[in-house]
Write a structure and sequence with these properties.
This protein has twelve helices and 18 strands. By secondary structure, the protein is α+β, with helices and mostly antiparallel strands. It has a six-stranded mixed sheet. Strands 7, 8, 9, 10 and 18 form a five-stranded mixed sheet that branches. Bound molecules: zinc ion (3 copies). The site of one zinc ion has 5 residues, from loops.
Length: 386
């Protein structure tokens, strides 16, 4: 990505973080919670824009319905803490603690009088247990009912960033599908995918799955030293983060090596057609009001009707945003109605253990009247000659 493209990159306006902090505080009141304690991670980034380091020294956002939000940070992190958008725009006070201070005591003072506190799901046990010891009369619960309620619906700026990440992953995928594959190891191709994701503007590469031949039947295959050959499928599932937002796309290639005899066999063609139809039908069904589990069922019914019900061994999708996997999960048992702005993967798969498999994955945003599919790489089985 060029410097000019990076400068044009959409971003979350600083004022948005103050609004999010106010919403979190209001929701806490709604849920009868006297304070929300947020450790380092995606919840903190969402509320403040602060990408804090995960340290053994405590960094904690304290959201208090009866007072202004405070970010507790180690003194040596004062500069990045005070520079985060929420603090820089005046929506957040930063209180630092020195090396020999007790940061837990500082948090305890900030939440004085609280009866019920919610802690972010990823807060480390070493902090939770110290808080519980120091606040023995307080009832602790998870903050996810509050924070997921906010994070599950993406605003237009977040959707723009997800779209940017998807476009970058699309270009990385196209580059791989157009390049040479036969004779290379999965690990080698996986490394190239990582380089391409970074070249397209990703700051992190979270996964670059390359599953060739029988390995394509293992959904989370760890790319290894197996050499890609003609006459077999290869599964590519790649993703990372761009400006903090996640990408995630899966496409399938069949390696012909330029030999017409090495094309996909009839079983694989059938399997792939069923899968592609199921993926398209499920993605097309995404609209406000439909239950999350229904999107899964639409694909599953088609796959089962083709005799592959036992070979679709995972849920159809997961939410995506600041984290690669987050709410909403599109899975049987989750009756949550989709809402405009929810973003998630639609990724059915059919896996014949020991033989081969296939998955097709797109990121979809629920629009006001239907799906907005962010990935644009064609979904047909790609025949790769080289
Ligand atoms: Zn997965
Ligand atoms: Zn994926
Ligand atoms: Zn996924």
């Amino acid at each position: 990505m060029t410097a000019a493209a990076a400068a044009d990159r959409p971003e979350i306006p600083a004022a948005r973080f103050g609004e999010r902090l106010a919403s979190a505080s209001a929701l806490a009141v709604d849920r009868g919670v006297d304070g929300v304690l947020v450790g380092v991670g995606a919840d903190l980034r969402y509320l403040t824009g602060y990408r804090a380091l995960p340290l053994e020294r405590l960094t904690m956002l304290v959201v208090r319905p009866l007072g202004a939000p405070v970010l507790v940070a180690p003194r040596l992190e004062a500069l990045p803490a005070r520079s985060c958008p929420a603090a820089a725009s005046g929506a957040l006070e930063v209180m630092t603690w020195s090396e020999t201070d007790d940061p837990i005591a500082l948090v305890v003072r900030l939440v004085g009088g609280a009866h019920r506190l919610a802690v972010s799901d990823r807060l480390w046990a070493m902090f939770v247990l110290r808080l519980q010891t120091a606040l023995s009369g307080v009832a602790f619960s998870l903050a996810s009912p509050i924070l997921q309620e906010l994070r599950i619906v993406k605003d237009a700026d977040e959707v723009a960033l997800l779209r940017l990440a998807a476009g970058a992953a699309d270009r990385a995928m196209e580059g791989i599908l157009r390049g040479r594959l036969v004779g290379r190891t999965e690990a080698d191709v996986s490394r190239e995918i990582g380089e391409r994701l970074v070249a397209e503007g990703h700051e992190t590469v979270e996964f670059a799955i390359v599953g060739s031949g029988p390995n394509s039947a293992s959904p989370h295959h760890d790319p290894g030293e197996r050499v890609i050959r003609a006459g077999e499928p290869v599964l590519f599932d790649i993703g990372g983060t761009l400006a903090g937002y996640s990408s995630d796309i899966t496409r399938m290639a069949w390696i012909t090596g330029g030999n017409e005899q090495a094309g996909p066999d009839a079983d694989y063609r059938r399997l792939y057609d069923v899968l592609q139809g199921a993926q398209a039908a499920a993605a097309a069904a995404a609209r406000p009001g439909i239950a999350a589990e229904r999107v899964d069922a639409i694909a599953r019914e088609r796959i089962a009707a083709a005799g592959h019900g036992d070979h679709f061994i995972h849920r159809i999708g997961h939410g995506i945003g600041l984290e690669g996997h987050e709410e909403p999960y599109l899975v049987a048992g989750n009756a949550l109605p989709l809402r405009e702005g929810m973003a998630f993967s639609v990724e059915p798969g059919i896996y014949l253990e020991g033989r081969y498999g296939a998955r097709i994955e797109d990121i979809v945003v629920c629009g006001s009247d239907g799906p907005r599919v962010l990935n644009e790489v064609p979904r047909g089985l790609r025949l790769v000659g080289g």
